Fold this protein.
Amino acid sequence: MKNTVILLVDDDEDDCELFIAAIASLNKDILTTISNNSLEALNNLKTATVLPDFIFLDMQMPYLSGAEFITELQQVPELSKIQVVVYSSHSHETLKKLTNEFNSVQIFTKPNNFHELVSTLDAIL
């Protein structure tokens, strides 16, 4: 069975720790990498030999915003096939407006509790 590979692009250390704990609680074969720098993450993806199945992306990032990251990602054919899930503290309505121009981008607002995060991740993965 192939592992699911996830790249989390988020500069908030607490949110990253919570995300990793939620992924671990799913008891699935999932490998997760974290990048706290959106520009570095994009550059690493361009040279990667193994691409992630999913990118979970915070919208409020230094260097490249989430929208700028998605725009750049979609300009590289092999990277444009990666499923992007916008994972942000913005309201759902705001996220819809921010990602409206992008095809096949899923969105979810960072939940208020761990159980909800685990449930949402389980549904996505």
Strands lie at 4-9, 30-35, 54-57, 83-88, 105-109. DSSP finds five helices and five strands in the chain. The mean pLDDT is 88. Helices lie at 13-25, 38-47, 66-74, 92-99, 114-124.
